């Protein structure tokens, strides 16, 4: 059983409570934490959206969502009933000052004296400022109310600034919880443990020993029901600016002075600020953007992105970047980052390739050591290294691997990332949330890429759905004498 801290009674006010995120992720996450004993029975989940629903109708939707998104073995009727007792609904347009704020106040004021108040914005980010202002004008923000902001925080530095300013007028920075669900993943947090709890890794974690780092988040799914959002975003904004740069920060950061939020965030932001800016001389060779075309996934034919959309588009469903970090630790080490929809397999991982051994002791050059940190699925770590080949009397070598599968190792259910993050916001535990300067530094670094792509300075490449991506991405690594992980075997 995961060790988790029982939290104080809380009122979770979710704006966007009828939406995909709430149904698929937030309600199931809160349900799981109730089953684990972390949520007190007096806690309340107050859904709000414009749809005119009675409380009982919303409770029925919430039950349906749990039925659909909680594993059937974990769906327990009694606990579901206890959960639904906590669920309320207020029909409200969060962007309008003259909407039903009185309805929200009534629910909030009823038996709420000692409750921690959390506002979760699961709506379009351009509403965040207006919702904050209305909450303030209605006097609903208490001294220690937290606000959780969903990504994306803007579509570029300017809009991120505007959102942060607008929310920051009413919530102090240490009560603003910018969510990045990758940081809620156990295996992403594990990067900190692997690096700093093992002298073996800590001592070789630098340009002296590391040849390259690959960070991949690949998906089999396409844009599903989110085409309208995705086509305005693309893989760079959707996955790289936030999730993958956060992962890169954990892989590359200097040892933080402590595991306190600001120490970890200081270490991360200094990585973001040390990323070498891409410019017109490096953009064409260090960035690849592509769209999937018709292909086959698991025996089924899959339409191309443009056919799915039904119109032309300049939006990438694949991104691969070559980044460098200008610090003594990482001088000249390429960090390859890629993310895509409709790849051959779902895989999120970090692959660290070590430099070749300088020895000339053996008849053949030893293979490079490779550390693979599997974020998902099959969470775990594998370490490829050389042993003596017992069938070779001339000191021939054999490449083998130590492979740890966490689910076997710990025999626990791997929680969804949202579970922990939702309750961390109640606890007021900000380590796994993003500070404002991190968001802004990340937007600054991707800005030249967005600009060059918008001007078509880097041509759009193509890849068949169900493949590992475009040839151009293979070439990007080949220029450095490297290959993507799937081609290493
Ligand atoms: N879905 C996902 O997997 C992910 C989503 N996100 C982010 O989460 C947020 C929500 O996404 P998602 O759930 O997919 O979006 P949906 O479009 O499915 O849901 C939007 C929600 O907002 C409500 N809403 C819209 N306008 C208002 C308003 N003026 N006042 C109050 N409520 C309003 C809608 O209900 P109604 O129409 O009844 O008002 C609905 O409940 C977005 O910022 C998205 O980028 C981030 C990561 C993943
Ligand atoms: O934030 C997002 O993440 C998901 C991928 O998350 P994962 O936990 O399944 O790796 C992605 O599908 C979505 O487009 C993006 O908005």
From TrEMBL:
The keyword Cell membrane does not apply. Coiled coil: none annotated. Its EC number is 1.1.1.49. The keyword Transcription does not apply. Residues 13-190 form the Glucose-6-phosphate dehydrogenase NAD-binding domain. Residues 193-485 form the Glucose-6-phosphate dehydrogenase C-terminal domain. The active site is at 243 (proton acceptor). InterPro entries: G6P_DH (IPR001282), G6P_DH_AS (IPR019796), G6P_DH_C (IPR022675), G6P_DH_NAD-bd (IPR022674), NAD(P)-bd_dom_sf (IPR036291). Gene3D superfamilies: Dihydrodipicolinate Reductase, domain 2, NAD(P)-binding Rossmann-like Domain. Catalyzes the oxidation of glucose 6-phosphate to 6-phosphogluconolactone. Belongs to the glucose-6-phosphate dehydrogenase family. PANTHER family: GLUCOSE-6-PHOSPHATE 1-DEHYDROGENASE, GLUCOSE-6-PHOSPHATE 1-DEHYDROGENASE G6PD. This is Glucose-6-phosphate 1-dehydrogenase. The gene is zwf.
């Amino acid at each position: 059983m995961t060790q988790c801290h029982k939290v104080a009674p809380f009122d979770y006010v979710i704006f966007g409570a009828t939406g995909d995120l709430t149904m698929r992720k937030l309600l199931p996450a809160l349900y799981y934490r109730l089953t684990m004993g972390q949520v007190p029975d007096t806690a309340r989940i107050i859904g709000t959206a414009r749809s005119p629903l009675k409380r009982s109708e919303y409770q029925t939707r919430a039950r349906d969502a749990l039925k659909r998104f909680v594993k059937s073995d974990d769906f327990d009727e009694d606990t579901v009933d206890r959960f639904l007792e906590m669920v309320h609904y207020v029909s409200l347009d969060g962007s309008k000052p003259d909407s039903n704020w009185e309805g929200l106040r009534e629910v909030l004021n009823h038996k709420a004296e000692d409750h921690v108040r959390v506002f979760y914005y699961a709506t379009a980010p351009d509403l965040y400022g207006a919702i904050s202002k209305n909450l303030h004008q209605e006097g609903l923000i208490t001294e220690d109310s937290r606000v959780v902001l969903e990504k994306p925080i803007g579509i570029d530095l300017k809009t991120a600034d505007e959102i942060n300013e607008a929310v920051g007028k009413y919530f102090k920075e240490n009560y603003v919880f910018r969510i990045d669900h990758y940081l809620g993943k156990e295996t992403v947090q594990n990067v900190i443990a692997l690096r700093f709890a093992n002298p073996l890794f800590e001592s070789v974690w630098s340009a002296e020993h590391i040849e390259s780092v690959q960070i991949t988040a690949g998906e089999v799914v396409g844009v599903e029901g989110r085409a309208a959002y995705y086509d305005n975003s693309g893989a760079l904004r959707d996955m790289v600016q936030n999730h993958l740069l956060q992962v890169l920060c954990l892989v590359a950061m200097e040892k933080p002075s402590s595991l306190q939020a600001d120490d970890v965030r200081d270490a991360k932001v200094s990585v973001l600020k040390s990323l070498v800016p891409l410019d017109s001389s490096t953009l064409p060779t260090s960035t690849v953007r592509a769209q999937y075309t018709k292909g086959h996934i698991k025996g089924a034919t899959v339409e191309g992105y443009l056919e799915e959309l039904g119109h032309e588009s300049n939006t990438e469903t694949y991104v691969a970047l070559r980044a460098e970090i200008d610090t003594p630790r990482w001088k000249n080490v390429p960090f390859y980052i890629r993310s895509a929809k409709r790849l051959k397999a779902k895989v999120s991982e970090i692959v660290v390739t070590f430099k070749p051994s300088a020895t000339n002791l053996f008849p053949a050059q030893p293979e490079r050591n490779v550390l693979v940190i599997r974020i998902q699925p099959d969470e775990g770590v594998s370490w490829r290294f050389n042993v003596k080949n017992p069938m070779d009397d001339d000191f021939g070598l054999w490449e083998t691997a130590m492979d740890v599968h966490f689910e076997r190792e710990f025999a626990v259910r791997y929680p969804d990332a949202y579970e922990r993050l939702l309750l961390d916001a109640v606890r007021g535990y900000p380590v796994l949330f993003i500070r404002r300067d991190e968001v802004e530094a990340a937007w600054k670094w991707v800005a030249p890429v967005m600009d060059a792509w918008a001007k078509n300075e880097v041509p759009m490449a193509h890849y068949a759905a169900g493949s590992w991506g475009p040839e151009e991405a293979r070439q990007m690594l080949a220029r450095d004498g490297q290959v993507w992980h799937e081609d290493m075997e």
